[in-house]
Design goal:
The structure is a single chain. The protein is α/β, with parallel strands linked by helices. The chain has one domain (about 15-204): 3-Layer(aba) Sandwich (Rossmann fold), CATH 3.40.50. It contains nine helices and five strands; from the N terminus they run αβαβαβαβααααβα. Strands 2-1-3-4-5 form a five-stranded mixed beta sheet, sandwiched between helices. The radius of gyration is 17 Å and the shape is globular. The model is unreliable at about 1-10 (pLDDT under 50).
Length: about 200
C-alpha cells in the first residue's frame, strides 16, 4: 500500500468509538439522539446492550463487557446512560460502576455514567431554554409543545437540529447544576443532565 493510501486510510478511522448501554435501548430517545451525534461528529457507536433495561442491569452488562470482552481500540469509551425512574437501582448501578472503576487494573477501560433526573427530557428542555419540572410527564408535555418533532406517545425523538442550536446554553446550565451538587452523589440530585458529559465527549 502506498504512502498516500495509508494517509487516506488513517483519515477514515473514527475519532472515537462509544460503547453504549442505554436505558431506552439503541432505538429509544437517548439511543437515537446519541447515534445522531456520533454520525454528525465522526464517532462510531457500538451497543453493549441492545435492549431496554433498568440501570442496574445496564451497569452489570457494562462491567461484564469491559471485564470479559476484547481489548478496546484506542480512543474508545464505555458509557452507561439512564434516568432516575428507579432510585434504588440507580443507586446500586452507581455503586457497582464506582467499585469497578476503583478496582480495575491500570490501563483498563473506565465506565462513564450519563445520569439524568428526572428523565432524559431534562436535557431536551435545557436545549429549548425551558424550565424543568420534577414530574417527567409535565416535561414530556412541554417538549411536545416546544419541540414539534418530539411526540412522547409516538416513538419519541429529539429534534436534533433544535438540540444543536440550544447546546451552548444547555451545556452551561447542566454544568451549573453539577457545580451546585458539590460532593453529593449525582443520583441524589433533584435535577441533573449528566448526558451533557457524553455529548461533550462526542462533540469534542
Amino acid at each position: 500500500m502506498g504512502r498516500n493510501s495509508e494517509v487516506t486510510f488513517r483519515r477514515r478511522i473514527p475519532k472515537k468509538v462509544i460503547y453504549l448501554a442505554c436505558e431506552g435501548g439503541t432505538t429509544g430517545t437517548e439511543g437515537t439522539y446519541i447515534k445522531q451525534l456520533c454520525a454528525a461528529y465522526n464517532c462510531t457507536m457500538i451497543p453493549m446492550y441492545k435492549g431496554s433495561a433498568d440501570p442496574l442491569t445496564l451497569a452489570v452488562a457494562a462491567i461484564r463487557f469491559v471485564s470479559d470482552g476484547p481489548e478496546l481500540p484506542e480512543k474508545s469509551e464505555v458509557w452507561v446512560v439512564f434516568d432516575n425512574d428507579d432510585p434504588k437501582k440507580v443507586k446500586a448501578a452507581f455503586k457497582h460502576i464506582d467499585a469497578y472503576n476503583s478496582e480495575c487494573e491500570p490501563g483498563a477501560p473506565k465506565i462513564w455514567i450519563a445520569f439524568n433526573a428526572p428523565s432524559i427530557e431534562t436535557w431536551g428542555l435545557l436545549c429549548c431554554g425551558q424550565k424543568i419540572s420534577a414530574d417527567p410527564k409535565v416535561n414530556q408535555a412541554k417538549l411536545n409543545t416546544c419541540m414539534p418533532k418530539y411526540h412522547h406517545t409516538k416513538n419519541p425523538r429529539f429534534d436534533f437540529d433544535m438540540m444543536e442550536s440550544g447546546y451552548d446554553d444547555a451545556l452551561q446550565r447542566a454544568k451549573d447544576w453539577q457545580k451546585s451538587a458539590g460532593d453529593s452523589p449525582e443520583y441524589t440530585c433533584h435535577f441533573f443532565a449528566g448526558i451533557y458529559k457524553l455529548v461533550e465527549h462526542i462533540k469534542g
